[in-house]
Amino acid sequence: MTLPDLPGWHARPHDAAFAALDSSAADGLSEAVATERLVAHGPNRIDAHAGRSALLRFALQFHQPLIYILIVSGGIAAFLEEWADAGVIFGVVLVNALIGFIQEGRAEDALAALARSVASDVTVLRAGQRRRIDAVTLVPGDVVWLAAGDKVPADLRLFDARALQVTEASLTGESTAVSKGVEPVAADSGIAERTCMAFAGTLVVAGQAGGLVVSTGRGTETGRIADLLDATETLATPLTKAMERFSNWLLVIILGLAVLGFVVGSLRGEPLLDMLMAAVALAVGAIPEGLPAAITVTLAIGVSRMAKRRAIIRRLPAVETLGSTTVICSDKTGTLTENQMTVRALLADGQRFAVSGDGYAPLGSVSQDGGTVEVSGPLRDLLVAGVLCNDAGLAEVDGEWTITGDPTEAALLVSARKAGLDENRLRMEGPRLDEIAFDSARQYMASLHRLDGQLVVLVKGALEVILPRCTTMLDADGEPVAADIEAIDTASRAMAAEGLRVLTFARIEVNSETLDEMQVAGGLCFLGLQAMLDPPRQAAVQAIQACRAAGVKVKMITGDHAVTALAIASQLGLAEPGEKALTGRELALLDADQLRVAVEDVNVFARVEPEQKLRLVQALQANGEVVAMTGDGVNDAPALKAANIGVAMGAGGTEVAKEAAAMVLTDDNFATIEAAIEEGRGVYDNLVKFIIWTLPTNFGEGLVILFAVLAGVTLPITPLQILWINMTTAVLLGMALAFEPIQKDVMGHAPRPPGAPILDGVLIRRIVLVGVLLLVAAFGLFLRWQALGASLEEARTVAVNVFVAGEIAYLFNCRNLRGPFWCCGWFSNPWFWGGIGAMVTLQALFTWLPAMNRVFASAPIPAEAWLEILASAAFIALVVGVEKRLTRVVR
Ligand code: ADP
Ligand code: MG
Predict the structure, then answer these.
(1) Is the CB of 289 under 6 A from ligand 1?
(2) Pick from 236, 575, 580, 852: most CB atoms within 10 A?
(3) Which residues contact 141 (CB under 8 A, 6 or more apart)?
(4) Is 331 marked active-site?
């Protein structure tokens, strides 16, 4: 069955929408209907190349200054009726554009595929049951439930909205949140005015809602404009921009030299046409044709290597920025710790109890001084509050105890079960009438129940928030007495010092059936404390050490108590014993300058509100730091955007946070950030390797032509031969560098200062050195073999082989930036040897194959010539090896 595609969902009552889509708010669709509609409507996804058309993308490949020179050169060659030269030059231009086009498309596809691989689940109502499903399988007629932090999965007609706020920037460009409701609006309203609709791709920043899916995938408003979206920015990175500036410089230099050569040669009376041809040779020689493709490929390889290590890059520039990260600000719970909560200690009736057992299996008991205790009175009230003021679930699946919802809350179900309390029965006996959901900024949760004929509000949250609101507590007989604030505070500190996360419980009787914050503002009766263990991740301990060694600072940011945070931090090796934490309250009192000083020394920030993370990022950045900041909630989004690398949690994070982040951790693990930094540095290394490998050849070729013109001798290499060298070596030799494994010492030095030039003095000197060596060897052997009576073709073949052999030899020097090439293992990169083998084969063909001889004006050369070629290549490798040892580049 196909559904009527009626416009104007926003203009009719939601009942009519349900009727039109043959669905209902009570039950949703049946699985059978949903499956049928999925076939009819297709998956709820917008793929295909969003953005520019293929033709335009191809055309844009020619829009590069260096390619302009090549095209003009080809034109000149054609004008001179040098057809072979013209053909090859245009061939190179075309091949180059094709490679660029394919690589760019592949890189874009890979990025898009990775972005999709971060599954986006939605809560949907099917056959009367709420379930979590992959948003891709949504169909029109589905009923979905949204909460703050969700991304709207399809176009929805809202039928239930509670304080719903949505940002529609992706659709309307308007970044402030708009309120949504359920009432129909005028039929001619624009997108922005359709307040009873929620559109695919927009973000829920507050409230809750139920919506009816009216269109999916390409049928959504976002799907309709997908073709218009501009994807130009996606592949630009600081490095590619720097390369663009570099190319422009190169362009000026090459043109200048070409003009110089042309003028000097002409003044000397050389034939004008020869001089033009020389200018063409100079231009094609000095242009590093393979560079743009190499950069894209290297970055793309970096992205896929990071994905293998569970870090999904959402914005390509992040690959490079990761390499220069100087500070990581990490959440504690779930990132540095396992997020495996187990209640270990209780405080009720002024006494401390121990809870035994590990994990979520409810096997264990509540004891005091080694003896199991009878759970009754205030202790029972405490555990019951933990169960009722709770949204988590606990179930045994195939012998494994698994949880749904917040681990902090699941731990409370486990502790209650250990005391013999069953959450399902308790939830039936004390039905929930209303609630105030937990929120990191509020730091508590409250729920209203009908318990034993009374209306009771149960509250749980951070000690600092709950305890000041308590006036009474229960004595052993369940009678209220004045709360002993000091004793409770002491007991909670003792628990926190053990690294336990402490939750405070309280209750108050009310006579309203709805709940608001005012009702729990004071006069509460203290019930007790539950303290839970969340063990530090062992992988994080090593990762923190690795970061320290690499000059990357690690700071913990948590909503938890300072004492708990410090205890965990010292277990992680993140803080020294006796170190101080800075709390959110103290932080709020500091002005921007004071904060700048404070952020440098403090490693642990506790009781921090999400909004304060933004201030921390800004303070660190003001100190010149490159900041990676983690986050998972809606309120973390501003900090994630402001950070140099926003890092979102793939498993436990909201869609809003993922949308704001540059990188998503699929395992929420701190160690993954460290791995990504390592990869980021490796990628940058490999880019530098390619650049310092490729530029000397261009430099050397340019010099050879310039010298020939200035000295008035025949060109030792023709433009055609230069293109042959550049294209074949770039693809076969240079690309191997993109596949180099990460150098082992990559985390052994401080991060690259942001904004530092790609090539420092040492590397520029090396490029000049190798360029000059190539010039001397090629020119020298060319002249020598001409003097020995070789033909021009033979002498030129010698010169070409000097360049290629020199590049192969120098490739060994470029495999490792900081040590000799054998540091990285002889056979750790199969591409390296494969590339060299292929290159040697091609040179043999170039030299001996008659067909190649005809096209490239090459000729077979004698064995002595080969010996001299090999000797000069070995000499180049040796000189660079010595130079590397003497300078010991540490970057
Ligand atoms: P973090 O994620 O950095 O550990 P949270 O913001 O989640 O910090 O928690 C801050 C504090 O809020 C905790 O120390 C705890 O006291 C309290 N808290 C955490 N989760 C809940 C919850 N589900 N219900 C009530 N209070 C909570
Ligand atoms: Mg939390």
Answers:
(1) no
(2) 575
(3) 3, 21, 22, 23, 28, 29, 33, 34, 37, 212, 213
(4) yes
CA atoms within 13 A on the CB side of 700: 33
CATH number of 240-308+676-887: 1.20.1110.10
Tens-digit pLDDT profile for residues 135-157: 999 999 999 999 888 999 999 99
Which residue's C-alpha comes closest to atom 15 of ligand 1? 462
Mutate to test the pocket of ligand 1, among 331, 337, 438 (most ligand atoms within 8 A of CB): 438
**The model scores a pTM over 0.70:** yes
State the ligand closest to the CA atom of 534: 1
Q: What is the pLDDT of residues 510-569, one digit of tens each?
A: 999 999 999 999 999 999 999 999 999 999 999 999 999 999 999 999 999 999 999 999
Whether residue 112 is predicted with pLDDT greater than 80 in this model: the reply is no
Tokens of residue 547, six digits: 């970061």
> Can you give 88-108 as a three-state secondary structure string?
HHHHHHHHHHHHHHHHHHHHH
- Domain 9-48+112-231 fold: 2.70.150
How far, in Å, CA of 480 to CA of 241, rounded? 70
**Given the residues 331, 381, 668, 685, the one annotated as active site:** 331
Spans of all domains in the chain? 9-48+112-231, 240-308+676-887, 318-337+537-674, 342-533
Q: Give domain 318-337+537-674's CATH architecture.
A: 3-Layer(aba) Sandwich (3.40)
Same fold, 240-308+676-887 and 342-533: no
8-state DSSP, 891: -
**Letter for the amino acid at 79?**
F
C-beta neighbour count of 145 within 10 angstroms: 15
Ligand 1 contacts CB of residue 600 (under 6 A):
no
Q: Which residues partner with 504 through β-bridges? A: 461, 529
Euclidean distance between the first and final Cα of the chain, in Å? 64
- For residue 127, how many other CB atoms are within 10 A of its CB? 13
Q: What is the Cα–Cα distance from 409 to 616, expressed in whole angstroms?
A: 29
| Architecture per CATH, 342-533 | 3-Layer(aba) Sandwich (3.40)
**Which pLDDT belongs to residue 226?**
61
Assess whether the C-beta atom of 314 lies below 6 angstroms from ligand 1.
no
Closest atom of ligand 1 to 558 CA is 3
Nearest CA to ligand 1 atom 12: 443
- Nearest Cα neighbor of 574 from 607, 611, 537, 623 is 537
Give the residue from 669, 621, 623 showing the smallest Cα distance to 641: 621
pLDDT tier at 235, thresholds 50, 70, 90: low
